[in-house]
Design a protein that fits this description.
With 193 residues, this protein is mainly α. It is 78% helix and 0% strand. It has 11 helices and no strands. It has helices spanning 2-7, 11-28, 33-45, 52-68, 72-89, 95-107, 111-123, 128-144, 148-161, 165-177, 185-192. The longest helix is centred in the N-terminal third of the chain and has 18 residues, at 11-28. It is elongated, with a radius of gyration of 21 Å. The relative contact order is 0.07. The mean pLDDT is 84.
Length: 193
């Protein structure tokens, strides 16, 4: 029904109608996945430039919810909108945003994009264990792509940054489970040092 109503309207009128729905949804209020997805989608289809901070918040929340639900295709559509609205609102997106965006990209098979987003997450990682986590994920991508040298370099960087013995042990354990460390004697040596 909704699509039928919109089909014959000019694009500007469609955007205006979506924007009115956004305003009505905020007035009515709501919670849960469907509410957040509808609110975000109407923001996307409405006028993003009208209230970019609100649109960024709504699309970011919907992206995170979709990511947590394992719906990476839906998450990616909202991540993209959140990045656009953040730029419009001159907002800086945080490490968690880029880690999840990278993970969604990875799950969808976009390894190159995933590496770019992990790089952005790395730049926003303030603590050593956060940096080690991101570097570990990047190393896994290099391993998956059969780029042994990039994998080795990234793992060395991750292990060099992580001084906490417990976290270092967990990192090495995760790499061993992925059969990265055992496949390369240099990595095995780097892991135990």
């Amino acid at each position: 029904v909704w699509e039928g109503l919109l089909r014959d309207l000019p694009r500007a009128s469609q955007r205006a109608l979506h924007q009115r729905v956004v305003e009505a949804l905020y007035l009515e209020g709501g919670q849960g996945a469907q509410y957040e997805y509808q609110l975000a989608q109407h923001h996307v289809d409405g006028r993003l430039t009208q209230q970019p901070r609100l649109a960024c918040d709504a699309t970011r929340r919907a992206a995170m919810r979709a990511f947590d639900a394992g719906d990476d295709a839906l998450a990616m559509s909202f991540f993209k909108a959140a990045r656009t609205t953040a730029r419009l609102a001159r907002l800086e997106l945080d490490r968690d945003f880029y880690v999840r965006l990278a993970e969604s990209s990875l799950r969808l098979g976009a390894t190159r994009k995933s590496l770019v987003y992990f790089q952005r997450a790395l730049a926003r990682s303030s603590e050593d264990h956060q940096r080690a986590h991101v570097l570990g994920r990047m190393a896994w991508i290099h391993h998956f792509e059969s780029n042994a040298q990039a994998c080795l370099d990234t793992l060395r960087a991750a292990l060099a940054r992580e001084q906490d013995g417990e976290v270092r042990h967990l990192l090495v354990q995760a790499l061993a489970q992925a059969d990265i460390v055992s496949a390369d004697p240099k990595l095995r040596l780097a892991a135990i040092q």
